[in-house]
Input
Amino acid sequence: MRWAGVGAVVAALLFAPSAALADDVRGGQRAVIKTLELTQAWRVSKGAGITIAVLDSGVDPGHRDLAGSVRVGKDFTAGANPAGVAPRRLHGTYMASLIAGHGHGDKGRFGIIGVAPEADVLSVRVILEDEEPGFREFNSAERFEHVVAKGIRYAVDEGADVINMSISKELATREERAAIRYAISKGVVLVAAAGNDGERDLDGDFAPYSYPAAFPGVVSVGATDRRLRRATFSNWNSSVLVAAPGVDIMGAGPGDEYWVGRGTSQATALVSGVAALIKAKYPDISPPLLAQALTAGATDRPPGGYDTATGFGIVNAPRALAEAGRLAGHTETATGTQVQDPAMPVAGGQAGRIKVIVRDENRVTVYTAIAGAATFGALASLSVIFLLVRRVRRAHSSQDA
Output
C-alpha cells in the first residue's frame, strides 16, 4: 500500500515582499479563472453553504486566504510520525486553497481566490508528505491500509457535500469501493486525480489506472497544459471523465506561503470547486447528474466527443451550472433502486440505477453512476511530488486581512 499526493512542489523561489506581491499572486491565477470562466459562474454561485472534505495531508487553518473556512477533522495517519512531529500540511493546504480560498485584505482582493470562495473545507488527513519522517511507516504498516476508506466514511458522516481526493494508490480494495458506494448513496460527490504517470504507457495503448479515480461513480480528472492539451504527465485511460488546468497553478501553502506547481492534483481541486458551485445552487442534484453536468458543459471537446486524454473535455463552470439547472429536476431518474450489481450488494438492500456512457467507440463502456464493483484491476499511478514551486512570504501588513 502506498498512498501519495499527485500534485507538485519542488524547489522554492522566494518573492521579495512588496506592495505588488498580492497582485502577483492573484495575477498568477488569471489563466485558470479565464479557462474555467469563473467570473461568470460567480454571478450564479460561489459555493455558500457547501462543505468540501479535502482528504489529503492536512490543511493549515490559519492561512490568511483560508482563515475561518477550515474545520480540522480527524487525522487517520496518527502514529505514523514520531511523537511531537507536526504535520507539514503542504499538499493539503495547496489543494484547499484552489477549492475554497477567499483571499485576504480589502474585499479579499489579495492572495488566492478558490473556485468556490464561499464554501467551507473539512480537512481530513489521510496521507503524509513524502518528506515527513513517518512516510515509510505509513505506507508499509498494515494498520494504515484502509485510511482513505475510513476518511471517506468520516467525511460523509461529518456532512461533506463534495470530497476532493488529490491522491492515488496503485490497487483498489473492497473497503474503498464500499466507502465510495456509501458516499454516493448519501448524495456526496467524489472527485479524484487520474494520476501523474501519463508518460509511462502500457502496451502503447493507455497509462496506468489510479485509485480512487478509477472506481465507478468517482469523477476522474486529468490535467491539461497551457495550450489546454493533455499534460504529458497526466494519465490517459478510460477512467478519465473530464480535465482541468494542471500546469503552473498558483496556490497557497502553510504559513501564508504561495506555491506554483503542476499535477492532476491541482486539476482535481479545481473540478471539486466547480462541483461545490453546482451543489450550492442545486443542493439536491444527485452525484451522477452532477457528473453529467460537468461533462455536458465541458469545452474543448475531443473529436468524437470523448477520448482517454481529456475525457469529455475541459470543465467550464458557468456551462456546468447551466447544465445542472437543466438536469436538477430529474434527480430521481439517477437514484432509483431498480438496477443492482449482483457482485456487490449495497448496504441496506439499496442499489443505484446505473447510467451507461460509451466513452470510446472502439472498445470502452464506462459506468458514470453508482454502486458497482470496480471493474478495473490494472496498475494505478503513484506520484512523487516533483515539480516547480514558488514560495512567497507574507506581504506587508497593509495587504493582510
Residues 4-329+356-396 form a domain with the Rossmann fold fold (CATH 3.40.50.200). The chain has a mean pLDDT of 81. The CA atoms of residues 301 and 313 lie 4 Å apart. The chain has one domain: 4-329+356-396.
